[in-house]
Amino acid sequence: MSLGKAYGVESHVLSPAETKALYPLMNVDDLYGTLYVPQDGTMDPAGTCTALSRAAAARGAQVIENCPVSGIRVRTDDFGVRRVAAVETEHGAIQTPCVVNCAGVWASAVGRMAGVKVPLVAMHHAYVVTERIEGIQNMPNVRDHDASVYLRLQGDALSVGGYETNPIFWEEVSDKFAFGLFDLDWDVFSPHIEGAINRVPVLEKTGVKSTVCGPESFTPDHKPLMGEAPELRGFYLGCGFNSAGMMLGGGCGQELAHWIVQGRPEKDMYSYDIRRFHPLLTDHRHWIRERSHESYAKNYSVVFPHDEPLAGRNMRTDPLHEELLAQGCVFQERQGWERPGWFTPQGTAPVLQYDYYGAYGNQAHGDHAYGRLLADEYTFDFPPHHDVIKKECLACRGAAAVFNMSYFGKFYLVGLDARKAADWLFSADVSRPPGSTVYTCMLNHRGGTESDLTVSRLAPSPQASALAPAFEGEGYYLAVGGAVAQHNWAHISTVLQDQKFRCQLIDGSEDLGMISIQGPASRAILQEVLDADLSNEAFPFSTHKLVRAAGHLVRAVRLSFVGELGWELHVPRPACVPVYQAVMTAGAKHGLVNAGYRAIDSLSIEKGYRHWHADLRPDDSPLEAGLAFTCKLKSAIPFLGREALEKQRAEGLRRRLLCFTVDERVPMFGLEAIWRNGQVVGHIRRADFGFAIDKTLAYGYIRDPSGGPVSLDFVKSGDYTLERMGVTYPARAHLKSPFDPDNKRVKGFY
């Protein structure tokens, strides 16, 4: 409801009595309340598609039916890039540089014609239509999330369906099944009938007029697959809509059109972009099946802020996984990687093999440590282990913490045109002397932020090592967030191909680990482990060196993602455990602790550091996000997105990212509405608790309701509140984080 206010969607939270008055046939005895959206409705899919195809035909499009596609012809250009050349059919070929795969459960088969992996599974999905129900006319549609069932108005009847824990997989997708239906399996479907009868009891005495059970495609994260396939230029996806095609089709279709015509969508579509998945996952049938099942079964589950999947786990582990598991690490999963979430003092919490929630003859797991700790997260209050994460954060602020960030993407950009490519790709000037490291963004042609990352300039080397490839010309080492590494790889590759730069992009992510030691004591600890002078004079902030750690050659980078004095150690995979153990031994007398990404989230938001795809998205510019310092606008060097930024700067910013602090001790997680002087001006993108300042912090973009630029005076003259679940809390707006605003700590001044 609170988010709806930011988007202009009217909604109301109703009491059981108000719900009964609105929907007299509903059983409200077991309800706390309901969310009512007056403008919700239904549409006729066949009529909608007919109207769209007629309108397209009137504008010159051709719709050719009964014309099976038999192949996708591919050509390789002079730079070795695979591109679409034609669609082959039983009636001849159509020459085209562009194909959109909208084939639903058959999308994987069409992908195979082109050498493109399409990560989806086919399942039976069903609903039933009841006989006429007196008094049901003009009632709202109903979703009962606890019963995982929906009741959709269909004239003077209801159609009833839902998401069960034991859906039937369509194991062998037949290409002869056009417009076919399956027989409904009542053993699988009956829980939906029971849930529907509980919610609308009159259904117990109402007959079933018809059943519909057809094939639907489902994806590992229950989100569509869209955008240009990384394996083949000109091959776009518009499939895997998880039975929500009519709901999502309008907006997705519009953005897909922008994608094809302009090269990128106008809105942030990362969550739907096929490039969110690493190639190791898109080709892993076991992972796709497990994750798609869990996403299906939990489709109507309440989305808690720190929930984690149980399916498809332990796919990608780094060298420190077992070491940290033994020390109580509670892992999170991001794009197949297991990464440290936080450390429990209550023993080990391994992730067990997926049990399919007891379906298909599997034995459901009983009580186990990871399941218990995850269940503690099923709250919109602070979880029971809030104080454990607090200790990790305050140890980092007061002494030191070690973070395993091995799941980060680690790429090399090298070659004769590498400097030209770097100048064009990166918004900051990264062509500094070897040994320098620069925080920068990558933009699209509209000035939106496709990534934020660090880029380290390398010295040329004729000989390859575990820490750098051999190369001629220029070289750069890129470190990017692991969850979005594939998106970065695909964006850079696309730009290199489009600009025809003569350089290589090399993936070193699996070959290197990354250990970050942060905090006031980090220098004293690492001085015992590294064979280098770590003083400010010898090793300044934002520089890197090859050094030895416990006898192993590593790349040390003086950077911080938490706002403290610290170094990242980029370590060859075989050396990760001995280097980590040496750091922990040296840090014991200094109060060094293990810490995870829950601590990073808190520490980074407290310092005001941005997270890509939370604070920064492809439709947010660095100027709006307060990152103008990452843009080389004072130089004459052209870069991707520069013209859009110059235009935006000249016209004034229509949105601006602000930091808010809330004095009342209340958790926030993102999506809360931002009120200014009694008007909604935006919503929160990211929020967390800052333990050093002992307050909730939240970041969100605000706009001027009048449509004008958001000036600094506009920001400073407002009175702000943040609305969380219908309750507003007074908030203070800041243009920069209130924690260490002068950046003294990262420079080693305490």
Give descriptors for this structure:
single chain, 750 residues, FAD/NAD(P)-binding domain, Gyrase A, domain 2, Alpha-Beta Plaits, 4 domains, six-stranded mixed beta sheet, six-stranded antiparallel β-barrel, 18 helices, 27% strand, globular, acetylation, flavoprotein, GcvT/YgfZ_C, mitochondrion
Could you characterize the architecture of this molecule?
Helices cover 24% and strands 27% of the residues. It folds into four domains: 45-120 and 221-285, FAD/NAD(P)-binding domain (3-Layer(bba) Sandwich); 329-350 and 361-371 and 378-408 and 511-614, Probable tRNA modification gtpase trme, domain 1 (Gyrase A, domain 2), CATH 3.30.1360; 409-508 and 621-651, Alpha-Beta Plaits (2-Layer Sandwich), CATH 3.30.70.1400; 653-749, Aminomethyltransferase beta-barrel domains (Elongation Factor Tu (Ef-tu), domain 3), CATH 2.40.30. The mean pLDDT is 96. It is globular, with a radius of gyration of 27 Å. It has 750 residues and is an alpha+beta fold. Strands 23-24-25-22-16-26 form a six-stranded mixed beta sheet. It has a six-stranded antiparallel barrel with strand order 27-30-29-28-31-32. Helix 11 (386-398) packs across helix 16. Its EC number is 1.5.8.3. Its main location: mitochondrion. Belongs to the GcvT family. It is an enzyme of class 1 (oxidoreductase). It catalyses: (6S)-5,6,7,8-tetrahydrofolyl-(gamma-L-Glu)(n) + sarcosine + oxidized [electron-transfer flavoprotein] + H(+) = (6R)-5,10-methylenetetrahydrofolyl-(gamma-L-Glu)(n) + reduced [electron-transfer flavoprotein] + glycine.
